[in-house]
Every structure is written in C-alpha cells, then in structure tokens.
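Input sequence (210 aa), recorded before submission:
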Amino acid sequence: EECEETSGRVASLSMKIAIKEEVDVCRKPLVKDCEIEGPEICRTEYESECWTKQEVHDVEDDVVTCTTEVEEKCEDETSGYTTNTKCSKWPKEVCTVEKKPVKKYTPITGCTKEPREICAPSGCGFKEGEEECYKKTQTVVQDSPKEQCSLEPQRTCKHVTKLVPKLEPTEECVDVPKEVCTRSRTNPRKVKKPVVKKWCYIPTEESGLA
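Predicted structure, token format:
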C-alpha cells in the first residue's frame, strides 16, 4: 500500500440565513363582555394573530410596449383639367412584445396563536373585539445556498503490485570428454597369424622326461 498527501478542495453549502422583513399583522383582541365591577382575575388566553407578506419573484415576462404613430394616405383628385393631391392623417397605435426581467409579488399569509394575559372581574366572559392591523418587523429564516470552499490536505492510499527478486537454483551443464568404444565389422578378411602354443609339464619318471 502506498499513500500520498495532496491538497483537496472541500466545498460546503450554508443553506439557512435569517433576514428581517416587514409584514402586515392583523388580530382580533379578546375583550370582556360584561360591565361587572369588582376585583379582576387575570389569566392567559391565546389569540389568533395572522400576518401577510409579499414574496418577491424575479421572472421573465412578456412586456408590451406601445407607441402612437401617425399614418398618412394621399390620393389624387381630378377636377376638370386640374389634379390635386389630397392627404389624410390618422393616429395608429403600434405595440411590440418583448421578454424583460420583472418582479412579481405573491402574498403569503400565516397565522399563529399568541399568548395574551387578560384580566376581568370574576364571572365575566370574553369575546373577540374589532380587528386591529399594524406593520411588524419580524425575523424570517430563508434558504440561501452559498458555497464555501477551502483547501484541506487529503491522504490517498492505494494497493500497488511490485516485482520482488527471488533466487532459485538452476541446472548448469559442462561438456566432459569421454571415450566411447563400439564394435563394428567392416569388410571382414582373413589374416594369417602365427600361433605359438606353450606346453608346460613337470618331468617325472613316468613320463620318461626325467
């Protein structure tokens, strides 16, 4: 296994940002529905509070541009031996359509339950009052992809096949001279050779050689 150090580009996406925006808020506050006098008792009630904001979209839309042009038409009129040219003019509106980037707004409405502390004498109830509307600045979390890049060292390892020398015995041969004799018969012929016989004896009286 072999490893090497390199510098790699690491990217990360930050998806959420908090922005402040102005919204229209409307609510119907709870009011007591009696005129009883006495010590007040306070408790927490939840009121519906609705808000509306305008979401902006950048889009390409067909934009119509119109201009007023004057059109003229002339005709020859003959009266007796004379010819006069009579012209008439009238306005004409000419429109062209082209794609242009425009901003469009979409109203978005949401409602939440907000706690309110209300006080009234014992035995007195509550009812919804007249609607109140006002502008309010609130913090909204939105998606906003933003790439952040940095260089960080990276270690890369991989398996590598290497050739390793290995010693093995091999057979070696040496030529050694050796005399080899064989019999062969080639053109046989008769050859006269003297034959010497050797007689050996022991002289004795019996043989008469003593």
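Checked by second reader. The chain has no helices and six strands.
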